[in-house]
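Ticket #4471: structure output looks truncated?

Reporter: J.K.
Steps to reproduce: submitted the chain below (448 residues) through the standard prediction queue, then opened the result file.
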Amino acid sequence: MKKKSLLLLLLFFSLVAWSQKVEFIEYDLDNGLHVILHQDSTAPVVTVSVLYHVGAKDEDPERTGFAHFFEHLLFEGTENIDKGKWMNIVASRGGSNNAYTTQDFTYYYENFPSNNIELGLWMESERLLHPVIDQVGVETQNEVVKEERRLRYDNSPYGKWYEVVKSHLFEDHPYKNSTIGKMEHLDAATLDEFIAFNEKFYVPNNAVLTVAGDIDIEQTKKWIQDYFGPIPKGEEITRSFPIEEPIKETIEAETFDSNIQIPAIFTAYRIPGLKSREAKVMNMISTYLSEGNSSKLYKRLVEEKKMALQVLAFNDGGEDYGTYVILALPQVGNELEDLLTEIDDEVKKLQDGLISERDHQKLLNIYEDNFVNSNSSVAGIAGSLAQAYALLGDTNSVNTEIEEYRSITREEIQDAARNFLNPNQRLVLHYLPEEEENEQESETEDSE
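Returned output as attached by the reporter:
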């Protein structure tokens, strides 16, 4: 009976694993556009997306914010889609759409009932072939971006931590700049500069078109050829970014925020980029330290010692480097330096010994679950396929990445902690209420 139950259990898990495999077809058009198709007829929906391999790191250092600006600007309209009508067209057909920008890429997508796939393909081809980039659109979106900056960064509690961390952690690589950029750079830019940016980066040979969902493969291929095939290939894009020197001593910094009353402490480490195995190991360390109420830092600082309101560890993975962050907000009566001591002690445990087999198995289970959830919708699959090709150079990593996580050992977790999480390799940022800055200035004046 036990053997039979075990056999059924193994069969069940093998079927689950098989059912989660993402089947896809990929090919290139003559103009260099990379196409990925995924067929899933379980629901009458489809996602059409285009990933452009252009992000904040590709910008002129005197014109930061261009990639994010284009995320907005390319919704303005095209030669065949009237200004301000993009969203209306999508909504009138029962669809939804959006876009987002990172350090490394910009991603646009539409989700439609599957009988509107041709519309989605036509609209994305219009964005690529016939965008209207004029002074009116630039001025309109300039105000939109400024309002976004005020809302999400300048007037949001802890809204500036990310750009402050990056500005200290990177000296030469363009990751030192924020994705939203500097408003004075956008204000100073000319229309010709925006047009030149579009002509350089928004070309088929710098893009990935992904169509996922309830599609007819052959018909979809024909539409893709009809709408995207005639688009001219752009000039080849060459990239050469500075290599950062290793951090060899602690970088101490502080910043002040008028939107907060509770201070925070951030530690940040520069680690290898997304393609590396080390990045995946560091993701596991993040989960071990702070995901869920039973994670080590949460249990220690929030539940047991009641020193922190919140504690988080995470890897912000980039194509070239990752930014590994551990942050904490103190309970009243606790100092930031005391939180840092507790965090360092927990990291030291990772460095000095292996995590338990039980904790290791728990981590593997979490990543199995994450893998299943990441492939639970056609929209999620479309994004995963596009990023796998563009950032990792291997579309099939959507299927094989879980095997890499499964193979990560306790010894590798210990080695990664030893290699990347040392005090002399990090930034320590004190993120403080603005009134503390005023108090410090008053003390300085009194001493004078």
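Triage note (M.O.): checked the attachment and the full token line is present. The CA atoms of residues 247 and 425 lie 5 Å apart.
Status: closed, working as intended.
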